[in-house]
Amino acid sequence: MCEVLGVSQSGYYNWLQKQVAPLTEREEKEIKIAQKVYQSFHNSHGTYGSPRILKDLQDWGYSLSQKKVANIMRELGLYAVSLI
Fold first, then answer.
1. Please, what is the end-to-end C-alpha distance for the chain in angstroms?
2. What is the tens place of the pLDDT at every residue in 55-80?
3. Of 38, 50, 61, 65, which has the maximum CB count within 10 A?
4. What is the pTM assigned to this prediction?
5. Contacts of 56 (CB under 8 A, 6+ apart)
6. Neighbouring C-beta atoms of residue 48, cutoff 10 Å
7. Helix or strand or coil: residue 28?
């Protein structure tokens, strides 16, 4: 099968291992933080930027930097808009 697909056996097994491997503790933490960022953003109707979302996260007991929050928002495609 690997010959037909044009991939090495080791490459196939490396890919297969990644598909069934459980999430690490760090990956689970990153997912929870991203969910909280998303929650805070949508609770504010899209008006909160990284400083205010950071404040919400700190209130909820998370400790991270504003730059990290901004990076997570960028990865999720969340951009604050001002309502005037």
1. 60
2. 999 999 999 999 999 999 999 999 99
3. 50
4. 0.73
5. 36, 40, 48
6. 21
7. helix
